[in-house]
Amino acid sequence: MERFAFVLHPLRFDDFTRKFPILRHLPESAVEKAFSHLPPFKASHITGAKSKTGVEAEGWFIVVPIAAHLMLDLPFREVMLPKLLRAGRIAEQLGAGILGLGAFTKVIGDRGVSVANGLRIPVTTGNSYTTASAVDGALLGARRMDIAPEDATAAVVGASGAIGRAASAALAGEVRRLVLVGRQERKLLQVAEDVQALGTHTTVEISTDVRAAAAVSDIVLTVSSATGVLLEPGDLRPGAVVCDVARPRNVSEKVYEQRRDVLVIDGGVIEVPGEVNFNFNFGFPPGYAEACIAETMILALERRYEPYTLGLDIRADRVREIRELAKKHGFSVAGFRRFERSIPDEEIEAIRKAARGGKRSSTSA
User: Fold this and answer.
1) Do 155 and 175 meet the contact criterion of CB atoms below 8 Å apart?
2) Which of 171, 208, 226, 321 is the most buried (most CB within 10 A)?
3) Residue 355 burial (CB count, 10 A)
4) pLDDT score of 225
C-alpha cells in the first residue's frame, strides 16, 4: 500500500461553513481570524485509490485553516512556513511517502522549495499535472463548445513564463494556430523557436497585445504572472473557451457575469481510478479531484517518491511524462472546474446554446 498526504486550506467562507454549518451565523472576518490561530490538523483519511496496474494507495488531507486572502498577507518565513512544516510533519507521522501542496500553499513563498527543504519526505506542488490538465481541459472544453481543436486558433497569455512555456509546448500539434502572448518580444521569440522545433503542423505566432490575441482565438489559456486583470467581457469572441490558470486571476469576474456565451474554466476535473473515498467534501463530486491532488496520488502509485514539481520552473518533459503516467494509472480529465468547484453539465450546455446564437466562424483569419 502506497501512501501520500495533501495540504488543503479554505478558499472561501463557505469552505468553513460546509464543515461547520453553525458558523453561517457568525461574521466572516471573525471566523477567519479565529481559525487562522489554529494549528494544522488531519481532516480525513483517503481510501480506495487503485491504479489500473493494481497498485493501491491511501492518503490523508491535512488542513491549514487559513483563508486564502490572509495567507497571502501573512509573512511567509515567520508565519506560513512554520505552519506548512507542521502540516508536513503530521504527514510524516502518518507514514506518507510524499506531500502535495494545494491552492495558495503552493503559491506563497518560494513555491514549495523551503517546505521540501524542511521535511524528510519529498514535496510536489502538482503544477506539472495542473498544466497538463489545463491544456487537456481547454481542448475538451473546445469540443464541448463545438470547436474542433485541430482547426482552431489558441492563445497562451503569459507564454514566456514557466507554465506558459510548458503549456505552449503541450498545445503544439493540437491546434492549427498558436499565438504566444507576453510583454517582451525577445522572450516570446525564444519560446516560439522552441515550440517550432517540436516539428508539429501548428503555425506559431507572437503578440504583445493580449486583447487583440484573445479577439481572434477560439481557445485562450491565461498563465500570466500579472497582478491585474488582463481580459474583460468585450475581449472574447462568442463561443470561446478560456482556461484561467493564473493566480491572481487574469480574467475579470465580469466575464462570468456578463458573457453567458463564453466557457471560462480553471482547468480540468480529474477522475480518480478505483473506488476512492476522500471522506471530505471539498466541492467535487465523489471520485473526482483537482489535478494537483491527482499528481500527488499518481506519484505515490508510481512509487516516484521525489520532489517532482517545485519552484517556479515547470519542465515541459515533466508535463508530458505526468500525462502519460496519468493514463497508465487510469486518471483522466472528466469535466471542468471554476473557483475550485466542479462546473455542472447543465451549465456547460447552457453556455454552448448561448454561443450558437452569436457565434462567428470557429476559426479566425
Assistant:
1) no
2) 171
3) 22
4) 72
